[in-house]
């Protein structure tokens, strides 16, 4: 618990000090899909809110809060077998929900594009590290065991875990003004993809939260 508190305090201190060194910034809102190995490599909704503090022309500091939600069904029994559920015989599955909140501190390299201050298409590379909190929930319906004919009540199991995360992203920022009118605007459309890795841990059990991330979004510069 002490390590978690120290990580949160350090992140808060870095984020609060960032505006002192910034030359400008922009709010970013992104959404798309992301996969997680601990969820059998299933993909689900992935979103992020970030603020890019521009340190100088080609570098920015980008604190970011992400959210990943994965919902899927898997066989309750191993090996997978049929049970009687609600009077019907079918494969018994457990519905799982995985919610993950990664707080990331990123450094971004803005790829030079000639002499243009605001190119129509701006490539960038983002590298970051941080801390994530994951919440797991598994729901199994009431069923009758096909072997013993014993009724089994419905059950819900939930737990949480936390741990270190890292990520690497490549992206493109499309300046709407340059694309439509030939003059720079404060709004950019973002397209980015990459890899987020790391493990969360609870009571000695570790879960691999690594997977790909693909998102689109918008940036509003100030």
From TrEMBL:
Q: Which residues form the signal peptide?
A: 1-22
- Gene3D superfamilies xref list: 2.40.160.20
Keyword field: Signal
Query: Mind telling me which Pfam families this protein's record contains?
Result: OMP_b-brl (PF13505)
Residue ranges of domain Outer membrane protein beta-barrel in the record:
9-196
| Protein's name according to its UniProt entry | Outer membrane protein beta-barrel domain-containing protein
């Amino acid at each position: 618990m002490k390590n978690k508190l120290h990580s949160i305090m350090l992140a808060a201190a870095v984020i609060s000090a960032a505006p002192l060194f910034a030359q400008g910034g922009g709010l970013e809102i992104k959404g798309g899909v992301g996969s997680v190995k601990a969820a059998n490599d299933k993909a689900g909704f992935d979103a992020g809110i970030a603020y890019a503090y521009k340190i100088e022309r080609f570098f920015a500091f980008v604190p970011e809060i992400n959210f990943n939600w994965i919902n899927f069904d898997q066989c309750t029994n191993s090996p997978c077998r049929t049970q009687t559920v609600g009077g019907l015989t079918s494969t018994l599955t457990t519905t799982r929900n995985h919610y993950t909140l990664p707080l990331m501190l990123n450094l971004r390299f803005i790829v030079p594009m000639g002499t243009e201050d605001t190119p129509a298409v701006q490539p960038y590379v983002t590298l970051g590290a941080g801390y994530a909190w994951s919440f797991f929930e598994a729901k199994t319906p009431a069923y009758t065991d096909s072997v013993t004919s014993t009724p089994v009540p419905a059950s819900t199991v939930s737990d949480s875990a936390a741990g270190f995360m890292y990520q690497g992203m490549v992206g493109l920022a499309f300046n709407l003004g340059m694309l439509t009118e030939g003059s720079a605007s404060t709004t950019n459309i973002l397209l980015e993809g990459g890899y987020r890795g790391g493990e969360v841990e609870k009571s000695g059990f570790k879960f691999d939260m690594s997977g790909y991330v693909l998102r689109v979004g918008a940036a509003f510069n100030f």
